[in-house]
Amino acid sequence: MIADVHANIAALEAVVADIADHGVQQILVLGDVVGYGPHPEACIDLLRQQDCLVIQGNHDYAAACGDTSRGFSKLATWSIEWTRNQIAAPYMDWLGALSPVHRQDNWIAVHGAPVDKRYFFAYVYHMTYQHNLDWLEAEQLAIGFHGHSHLQMCYQRRHNNDDKNLQPQQNMAKNRCTLVCPGSVGQPRGGESRAEYALFNSAEQVLELKRVEYDIGATVRAMQHLQFPSQLYERLTQGA
């Protein structure tokens, strides 16, 4: 699982290279391929080459249709307007055609939160995770994969206890249900500058949270060359 690539091709290439070493059968992309970063078309091309299953995020939706009326800061709005001026119509069409939800077997994949009827606006965090776990149980789903928070973590319900789990390796077999965020490929916000993703062995129900070094300097230089607001590239090195 990867999420929140945010047009950071250097980070995405590093993650895809690392994934190739693990015999992965399917890459699930949990939204926000574009936005914030300088290489939207290159990231879309690479994900299409990998034949990924891609979920629509709020930045993908906004880049496709231009609607930034809900949940977008000034910097996010700037980046969407920049993206829309850079990408060709076929890329907008591809982003607009993505589904905001994928449901299969005993799991669901969204960008934002399972309880959100739009799937890509609401967040899973410490104030909302129990409501989302309740929703998973009511829907008889064991796992909800999501992005949007840019924070690599899981929330689990085991027996009668709800809690977060930050362990790099987790066995989810005994959980009643679990919310999984693989972190962010292109813009982590948990104080971590490395690109983040997660591996999931569905047969054994084992999750591994991964972090990969990449050439942050290349991304920063590209953003500076394209005259991005400094806050957008400074946060990459800070993991904020």
Descriptive key words:
single chain; 240 residues; alpha/beta; 3-stranded antiparallel sheet; 8 helices; 34% helix
Write a short abstract of this structure.
This protein has 240 residues and is of the alpha/beta class. It contains 8 helices and 11 strands.
The Cα radius of gyration reads 17 Å
CATH secondary-structure class: Alpha Beta
What is the CATH topology? Purple Acid Phosphatase, chain A, domain 2
- SSE succession: HEHEHHHEEHEEEEEEEHH
The helix count comes to 8
Average pLDDT metric: 97
Distance between the termini: 21 Å
Strand content: 15-25%
- The percent range for helix content is 25-40%
Q: How many E strands?
A: 11
Number of domains: 1
Low-confidence stretches: none
| Global structural class | alpha/beta
CATH superfamily, please? Metallo-dependent phosphatases
In the CATH hierarchy, the architecture is: 4-Layer Sandwich
Describe the structure.
- By secondary structure, the chain is of the alpha/beta class.
- The protein has a single domain, classed as Metallo-dependent phosphatases (Purple Acid Phosphatase, chain A, domain 2), CATH 3.60.21.10.
- Helices cover 34% and strands 21% of the residues.
- It contains eight helices and eleven strands.
- The protein has helices spanning 9-20, 40-49, 58-65, 74-86, 89-97, 129-138, 216-225, 230-238, and strands at 28-29, 53-54, 101-104, 107-110, 143-145, 152-158, 161-165, 169-171, 177-182, 195-201, 206-212.
- The strands form three sheets. It has a six-stranded mixed beta sheet, covered by helices on one side. A three-stranded antiparallel beta sheet has the order 8-11-10. Strands 1-2 form a two-stranded parallel sheet.
- Helix 3 (58-65) crosses helix 5 (89-97) and helix 7 runs antiparallel to helix 8.
- The longest helix has 13 residues, at 74-86.
- It starts with 8 loop residues before the first helix and ends with a helix.
- The mean pLDDT is 97.
